[in-house]
Amino acid sequence: EALEAALADADRGMRYAAVQALGKAGAPPEILAPRLSDEAWCVRREAGWWLRRGGEKARALVEAALASGGAEVRATAAWTLSGFGAGSAPALRSALADGDEHVRLEALASLRRIGPPAASAAPDVRTRLAGAASPEEAYEAALAAARLAPEEDAEAAPVLAAAVRTPALDATWE
Length: 174
Fold this sequence. Notes:
By secondary structure, the protein is an all-alpha fold. It has helices spanning 2-6, 12-24, 29-32, 41-51, 55-68, 71-81, 89-95, 101-114, 122-130, 135-148, 156-164, 167-172.
């Protein structure tokens, strides 16, 4: 109970530690999922990390956050979904059309991390590659396309080669 109370503490370090302790203790996903909307990115990521171990119930909660949260929540949810594997591909495919570029970047990176088991998303990734809003998005889409269906994505190679020669791209990554 004290750990659950600490989830609402004003100090982000306390909230982070509480999420970590609850995650290690195997807290149910319903306890951790609300932290996906924490104001501190580190608390959101820690909650996502532990939710990845929560099975189908946790995945449903994360997918709900992806569908209804603010941009930072949706981006964290997209990042978290890579830990659930190919079953998350439909939700991540939907996130590729999100109005926020950061959410799309996280969805592309998650699909890349899942790899060939999420190959059903390759057509949507190619569409994203063709309509990328920035060099970062084109780069991430090219990486995802090459990972999901390398035999089909010859158009990814020139984008990746151009990205290697784009000094500004390095400066934009956090």
